[in-house]
Design a protein that fits this description.
With about 450 residues, this protein is of the alpha/beta class. The protein is built from 16 helices and 14 strands.
């Protein structure tokens, strides 16, 4: 990667959720974490980042200096409240107008590159790319065709509108950034993407925040019993994430260890989201039906520091999702030294080292999940070994590494776009950068 191809300023588009929102509430989740962490890391490398997101409150300031080098622009598009991401295609015109107006206040060439997150943002980025003459890098985070292929029982399929919209963005983006080789293959097979335009960039975890710590202190802080065996789910409460699978699989284990010195408790951390809003009490009702209400603890979404304590308080963390492009929860938990039991879907096969830092379960059969969890509970030596390996595995995934790989992708996008469009703003940026690089070289000591 050559320095003269690095962008000075990136327009990062995240229509449906702000990086300042609390993950685990509404439509906020791993994408929020990804956007925020990569933006701040890029800013530390000298790249100015401006994040465009939809305003969701009349109290949102139009422009927020969120961190050194990172600005969040809250664009008014539709009513502030009462809309989720399924309602937002009708507001893309208004949002795009807000993005274009912000750029129009500056001299041409203000942004060197656009990075859009999720298909809604890709639609906006596609139009801005054509208007500004700069490359568009797109990260899907999730794909409708993949979600529909692995749909949870009773869940609602993603609409054809989204499938078509994703296809358009895949066709138009100058560069596609994915989390794993599995996701790259899905883009090629399901969306006929050009593999040469796809870059695999693994997400990470904040390894300073998520680190091993005292289980006793964490449990005391969270009000959890010091001697219980705690199985934890962290994420948005919706069928896609399958917390019901964990609950049903844990029920026989709760009964098996009831009255012993180490009874089993399931900890559910998160809030209803997506189709989960249609039945917000579904897990509470399921716990009652299974007769385990007294062994289930619900916590609302937590801040990063508090979430680290949730992981440290746990014996195992379960990620039973029907599809995951990666699975940040798995990396965060392992960074805290906690083994993970996860469904062998999507990026979870990369996020969890099967047999070394956790266990992958093929499918979502409740019996298989109960066997996997129970097999670890009866073998504390094995579970402790997985925990020791978990931190080392997680250390392979840092946001610093993600930022480095993103900059490489940006460089490739700028280079190829400038070659195809020699009179574009991107080409001018490359030339300016080359001149700066040559001037810098002449000043270097021999």
């Amino acid at each position: 990667m050559t320095s003269h191809l690095l962008p000075r300023r990136v327009a990062l588009i995240s229509v449906h959720t702000s990086p300042l929102a609390q993950p685990g509430t509404g439509d906020a989740g791993g994408m929020n974490v990804y956007v925020w962490q990569t933006a701040t890391r890029l800013a530390r490398r000298g790249v100015e980042v401006e994040i465009f997101t939809r305003a969701t409150s009349s109290s949102d300031d139009p422009v927020v200096a969120a961190a050194p080098g990172v600005t969040v622009r809250n664009v008014v598009a539709g009513p502030f409240e009462g809309l989720d991401k399924r309602d937002l295609p009708a507001q893309l015109c208004a949002f795009t107008a807000g993005v274009l107006r912000a750029e129009a206040m500056h001299k041409p060439g203000y942004y060197d590159l656009i990075h859009s997150h999720y298909w809604l943002s890709g639609q906006v980025g596609w139009l801005a790319r054509d208007r500004w003459g700069v490359p568009l890098v797109h990260t899907a985070h999730t794909l409708a065709a993949v979600k529909n292929a692995f749909l949870a029982k009773g869940d609602t399929a993603e609409p054809q509108l989204r499938v078509i919209g994703e296809q358009q963005v895949v066709d138009e983006a100058d560069r596609l950034v994915v989390n794993t080789e599995t996701e790259a293959a899905e883009l090629v097979s399901m969306y006929h993407a050009d593999r040469s335009r796809i870059d695999v960039v693994s997400p990470g975890a904040d390894l300073d925040v998520y680190s091993p710590g005292s289980r006793e202190v964490a449990r005391a802080e969270l009000g959890l019993h010091p001697d219980e065996t705690i199985l934890t789910f962290v994420g948005r409460i919706q069928p896609l994430k399958a917390p019901d699978v964990l609950l049903a699989a844990a029920a026989p284990l709760i009964e098996k260890y009831r009255g012993t010195s180490h009874p089993v408790r399931v900890l559910i951390v998160g809030g209803p989201s997506g189709t989960g809003l249609e039945r917000p009490t579904a897990l509470i009702d399921l716990a009652a039906e299974l007769g385990v209400t007294d062994s289930i603890t619900f916590l609302p979404p937590q801040s990063a520091a508090r979430l680290a304590q949730v992981y440290r308080a746990s014996d195992l963390v379960a990620v039973p999702s029907y599809s995951e492009s990666f699975g940040l929860v798995a990396i965060e938990a392992q960074a805290c030294g906690i083994p993970v039991v996860a469904a062998d879907v999507g990026g979870l096969g990369v996020a969890v080292a099967d047999g070394r830092s956790g266990v992958l379960v093929d499918g979502h059969d409740v019996g298989d999940w109960s066997d996997a969890l129970g097999g670890l509970l009866v073998d504390p030596t094995r579970m402790a070994g997985l925990g020791r390996n978990a931190r080392a595995h997680a250390e392979q995934f840092s946001w610093e590494h993600t930022a480095t790989e993103l900059l490489s992708s940006y460089s490739g996008a700028m280079r190829s776009f400038a070659m195809r469009n020699p009179t574009s703003g991107a080409a001018a940026s490359v030339l300016r950068g080359a001149r700066r690089w040559r001037r810098r070289k002449t000043k270097l000591p021999v």
